[in-house]
Structure to design on (552 residues):
C-alpha cells in the first residue's frame, strides 16, 4: 500500500520522540550488529532521531517508523564509515560488508525483517547479561539497552546519582569490548547457562522494585513494571523456553498483589492480611496462562519444572485462595519441599518453614526454623527472625517472640518494614503480660 | 501505568465501501508487536451496536433499552488495555493503530489512563 493512501500524521516533537523511544532498543541492537560497537550504534540511533525531527513534521510520520529509522541510521552508518577511515578500519568486517552492499546499490538488507531484528534484540539481551559483568552492571546495561530507559531514569529508580549509573554502564561496555564478548545468542548447553543469567537479571530488577532495599518506600512501581515488561518481551523472543514463561508467570502473579501490599502510609501488609479483593485479576489470569505455557513446554521437552516455574506454581496456589483460610498449605509445603530439594537455598527453606508451620502447626514449623537458624546461614536476614517470632507468638511464647521481632527489626534497612516489626514486637510484649 | 484505548467511530459513519485489503493481517501484526514489546495486556473487538443492550438508571428507575442507539454520537468498536511508560507512549501506539487504516476510514482512539492506587 502506498503512503498516500494512509492517513497522514502531523506529529509533535513529543510524538516523534515517543516513536523513537519505542524503536530505540531494536535500533541500537540491529546497529550494534552492523557496526560492531554499542557506543557507535547509540550515536547512529541519535542521528536517526535528529533526522526524524527534521523530516517528519513536514513529511508526516512514515507508516513504519521503525523501518524508516533503521534505513536512515544505516545510511548514516555508511556515511560515517566512508568519511572516517579510522572508524572503518576499527569496524573492519561488518563495516566493509555494509559499504560493499551500499556500493552495489543493494537495498540495505533485512530492514523490514522482523525476525532478524528480534534476533538482534536477543543478542543484546545476552550481551548485557553476560556473566563476565557484575550483577549491578548487568542490571544497569539491561535497563538501558534492552529496556531503553535513560541513565537518569535508572538512577532515579535505584535512588543513586546518575553519574554512578553512567559510570557503571561505561565500564560494562568497556569490559564487553575488552573481553571480546561475541555479539551472539548462545547455543546448545551454553544457552541454558546463559539464559539463567538473563532470567536472574530480570528477576533482580523486579525484586528491587517489589521489595525495595533502598529508600523509604516499600515498593518501587517503576522497577516492578520494567521487570514485568522485560519478562514479557523475553517471552515473545524465546517462546519455546519453558523457564522464560515460568519467570513471566512468577512476576505476573507477584505483581498482581502490588495494590494490596502496602497501606497509603506505606506500611507493609503481609500476604495473610492483604485485602484479596485488591489483587489484580487480570495479572493473575496472565500469570496462569504463562504458567500453563511453561508447564506444556516442560512436558513437551521432557524437562522438569525450573526454579521460576516452581515458584510460580507456589504463587498461583496463593492466588486461587479466596481467603487465607482457603490456602492449600499441605500442597504448598509439598511444593516447597520439591523446590528445596531441587534448588536448595536457605531462603527457600525459610519459606518451607512458613508452609509447614501452617500445614502441620507452629510446633512443626518452629522445629524446622530452629534447624535452619542453627546453620547460621540466615542470621543477618530479618525474615528468619520474623518467621520464628511469628511461630513463637502462635505457640504463646510471647517473651521469645518479642525478642525475635526486635532482632528482625534490627536487621532491615527498610523503614516501613522496621515499623511493622516493631509494632509486632510491642504487641507480643503486651500479650506476654509484662 | 495502564491505559485503556477505545476505538470509536461516529455513529452516522459507514465503513468504507471497498474492503481495506489486509487490514486484519496488519492489525494482528501490530498486536503481536505490542505483545512482544511487553505492553499489551488485553484487546478485543466488539460486536455491532444493534446487538447491544443498555441498562439505564435515571430518577431512581431502571430501564432496559435494546440497540441500535440512534442518539449516540460515538460508538466504541473495540478496546485495548495496555501498560505504557507514559501517555506519549500510549498515544504513539494509538497512532500506529489508526495508521493501519486506509484514508477513507473515519475513527478516533480515546486514550484513558486507568485510575489506579499506585
Amino acid at each position: 500500500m502506498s503512503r498516500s493512501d494512509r492517513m497522514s500524521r502531523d506529529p509533535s516533537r513529543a510524538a516523534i520522540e515517543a516513536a523513537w523511544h519505542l524503536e530505540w532498543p531494536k535500533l541500537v541492537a540491529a546497529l550494534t550488529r552492523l557496526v560492531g560497537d554499542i557506543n557507535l550504534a547509540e550515536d547512529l540511533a541519535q542521528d536517526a532521531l535528529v533526522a526524524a525531527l527534521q523530516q517528519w513534521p513536514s513529511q508526516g510520520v512514515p507508516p513504519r517508523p521503525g523501518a524508516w529509522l533503521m534505513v536512515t541510521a544505516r545510511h548514516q552508518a555508511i556515511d560515517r564509515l566512508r568519511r572516517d577511515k579510522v572508524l572503518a578500519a576499527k569496524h573492519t568486517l561488518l563495516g566493509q560488508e555494509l559499504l560493499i552492499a551500499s556500493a552495489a546499490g543493494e537495498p540495505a538488507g533485512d530492514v523490514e525483517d522482523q525476525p532478524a531484528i528480534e534476533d538482534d534484540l536477543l543478542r543484546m539481551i545476552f550481551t548485557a547479561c553476560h556473566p563476565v559483568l557484575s550483577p549491578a552492571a548487568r542490571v544497569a546495561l539491561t535497563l538501558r539497552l534492552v529496556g531503553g530507559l535513560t541513565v537518569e531514569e535508572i538512577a532515579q529508580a535505584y535512588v543513586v546519582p546518575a553519574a554512578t549509573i553512567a559510570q557503571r554502564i561505561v565500564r560494562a561496555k568497556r569490559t564487553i569490548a575488552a573481553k571480546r564478548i561475541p555479539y551472539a545468542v548462545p547455543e546448545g548447553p551454553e544457552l541454558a547457562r546463559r539464559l539463567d543469567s538473563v532470567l536472574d537479571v530480570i528477576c533482580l530488577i523486579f525484586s528491587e522494585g517489589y521489595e525495595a532495599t533502598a529508600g523509604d518506600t516499600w515498593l518501587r512501581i517503576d522497577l516492578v513494571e520494567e521487570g514485568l515488561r522485560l519478562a514479557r518481551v523475553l517471552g515473545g523472543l524465546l517462546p519455546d523456553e519453558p523457564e522464560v514463561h515460568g519467570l513471566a508467570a512468577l512476576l505476573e502473579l507477584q505483581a498482581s498483589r502490588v495494590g494490596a501490599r502496602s497501606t497509603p502510609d506505606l506500611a507493609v501488609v503481609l500476604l495473610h492480611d492483604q485485602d484479596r479483593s485488591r489483587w489484580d485479576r487480570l495479572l493473575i489470569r496472565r500469570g496462569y496462562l504463562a504458567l500453563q505455557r511453561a508447564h506444556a513446554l516442560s512436558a513437551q521437552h521432557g524437562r522438569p519444572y525450573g526454579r521460576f516455574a516452581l515458584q510460580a506454581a507456589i504463587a498461583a496456589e496463593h492466588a486461587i485462595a479466596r481467603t487465607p483460610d482457603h490456602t492449600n498449605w499441605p500442597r504448598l509445603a509439598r511444593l516447597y519441599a520439591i523446590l528445596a530439594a531441587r534448588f536448595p537455598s536457605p531462603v527457600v527453606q525459610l519459606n518451607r518453614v512458613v508452609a509447614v508451620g501452617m500445614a502441620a502447626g507452629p510446633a512443626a514449623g518452629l522445629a524446622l526454623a530452629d534447624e535452619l537458624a542453627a546453620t547460621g546461614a540466615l542470621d543477618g536476614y530479618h525474615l528468619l527472625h520474623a518467621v520464628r517470632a511469628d511461630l513463637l507468638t502462635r505457640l504463646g511464647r510471647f517473651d521469645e517472640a518479642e525478642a525475635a521481632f526486635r532482632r528482625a527489626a534490627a536487621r532491615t534497612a527498610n523503614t516501613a518494614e522496621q515499623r511493622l516489626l516493631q509494632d509486632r514486637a510491642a504487641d507480643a510484649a503486651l500479650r506476654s503480660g509484662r | 501505568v495502564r491505559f485503556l484505548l477505545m476505538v470509536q467511530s461516529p455513529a452516522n459513519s459507514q465503513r468504507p465501501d471497498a474492503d481495506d485489503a489486509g487490514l486484519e493481517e496488519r492489525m494482528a501484526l501490530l498486536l503481536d508487536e505490542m505483545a512482544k514489546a511487553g505492553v499489551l495486556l488485553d484487546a478485543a473487538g466488539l460486536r455491532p451496536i444493534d446487538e447491544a443492550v443498555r441498562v439505564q438508571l435515571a430518577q431512581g428507575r431502571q430501564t432496559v433499552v435494546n440497540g441500535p442507539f440512534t442518539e449516540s454520537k460515538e460508538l466504541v468498536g473495540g478496546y485495548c488495555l495496555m501498560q505504557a511508560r507514559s501517555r506519549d507512549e500510549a498515544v504513539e501506539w494509538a497512532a500506529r493503530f489508526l495508521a493501519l487504516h486506509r484514508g477513507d476510514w473515519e475513527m478516533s482512539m480515546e486514550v484513558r489512563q486507568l485510575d489506579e492506587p499506585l
In short: The interface with chain A takes residues 1, 21-22, 35-39, 41-42, 81, 83, 85-86, 88-89, 91-93, 95-96, 98-99, 101-103, 105, 116-118 of chain B (CB under 8 Å). The first helix of chain B runs from residue 23 to 36. Chain B has a mean pLDDT of 89. Strands of chain B lie at 2-10, 40-45, 53-58, 61-66, 74-83, 108-113.
